[in-house]
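Hi V.,

Quick status before I head out on leave. The structure for the redesign project is tokenized and pasted below; the design run finished overnight.
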């Protein structure tokens, strides 16, 4: 676990999974927290009652830039996460990610933040040649198809990372970038429809896992508690303008392999993996990727993941948020 620290913290995306878990951790350490959310009613009561809430849309620059006060630490988590929405609304997704990041960086600049972390994604690597013995490091980049609507998300994340670098170079905003692997574990919400949550739902309901692709894409995963630790570690120890992969290298496997693991370890012999692959991409899944993400840079800084994929599923199925 990352060491305790106290300060005035500004957080976006607190109604989301990762943002809510960061909020809980910061509150447990006695930090003073302000959250910016689009819909305050979606905040969990135990968070809402303990933080200062600013209700504003991250795309509303006028509202964000009117926020005053001094914050020691800023963590920018807010971003669209539903793949189907990315496919149907690529313009809105791009505007939300890029403009929202610019407004937060400008706010961090004005409030004199000691440290800022921007939550990016492993999707920024696109399609890239790599393997288990030649993992992708933070200095490498692959191919992203700009004609694919679903690419709005990785392209916008990459543009937002560029803004982080530029705000550091021009204004010395002390921002770091956390490129997150797929994150889950305890506290995943019942309405979460991402692949790992669908697999867990099959275990709960005793129904077969149905794959809508061949399951060839490699997945890189990290437990939620490990991820929160890593984000706060980067906040305190990361180098300004640097990007860090947040991943447990032991948890790299294909979608098919993960489905088979869930069936074997938690299915109780009553469920199996089946396939229903449509001709079109109606579910909004990203293109197949063979990404093997390297966690070496953050590990050398002093952080290391602890929780394996089987334990992540057990925590998601059987443990609450706290």
């Amino acid at each position: 676990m990352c060491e305790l620290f106290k300060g005035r913290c500004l957080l976006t995306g607190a109604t989301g999974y990762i943002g809510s878990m960061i909020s809980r951790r910061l509150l447990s350490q006695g930090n003073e927290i302000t959250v910016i959310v689009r819909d305050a009613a979606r905040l969990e009561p135990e968070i809402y009652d303990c933080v200062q809430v600013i209700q504003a849309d991250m795309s509303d620059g006028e509202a964000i830039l009117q926020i005053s006060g001094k914050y020691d630490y800023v963590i920018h988590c807010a971003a669209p996460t539903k793949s189907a929405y990315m496919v149907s609304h690529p313009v809105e997704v791009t505007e939300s990610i890029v403009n929202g990041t610019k407004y937060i960086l400008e706010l961090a600049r004005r409030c004199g933040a000691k440290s800022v972390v921007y939550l990016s994604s492993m999707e920024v690597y696109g399609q890239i040649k790599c393997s288990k013995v030649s993992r992708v490091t933070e200095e490498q980049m692959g191919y992203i198809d700009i004609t694919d609507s679903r690419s709005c998300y990785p392209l916008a994340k990459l543009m937002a990372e560029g803004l982080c670098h530029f705000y550091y170079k021009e204004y010395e905003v002390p921002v770091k970038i956390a490129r997150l692997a797929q994150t889950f574990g305890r506290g995943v919400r019942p309405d979460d429809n991402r692949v790992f949550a669908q697999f867990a739902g099959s275990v709960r309901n005793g129904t077969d896992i149905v794959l809508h692709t061949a399951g060839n894409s490699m997945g890189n995963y990290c437990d939620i508690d490990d991820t929160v630790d890593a984000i706060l570690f980067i906040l305190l120890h990361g180098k300004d303008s640097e990007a860090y992969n947040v991943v447990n290298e032991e948890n790299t496997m294909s979608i098919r392999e993960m489905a088979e693991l869930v069936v074997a370890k938690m299915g109780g012999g009553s469920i199996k993996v089946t396939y229903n692959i449509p001709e079109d991409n109606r579910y909004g899944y990203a293109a197949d990727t063979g990404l093997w993400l390297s966690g070496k840079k953050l590990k050398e800084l002093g952080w290391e993941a602890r929780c394996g994929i089987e334990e992540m599923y057990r925590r998601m199925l059987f443990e609450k948020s706290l």
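Above is the designed sequence. The first strand starts at residue 8 and ends at 12.

G. will cover questions while I'm gone.

Best,
W.
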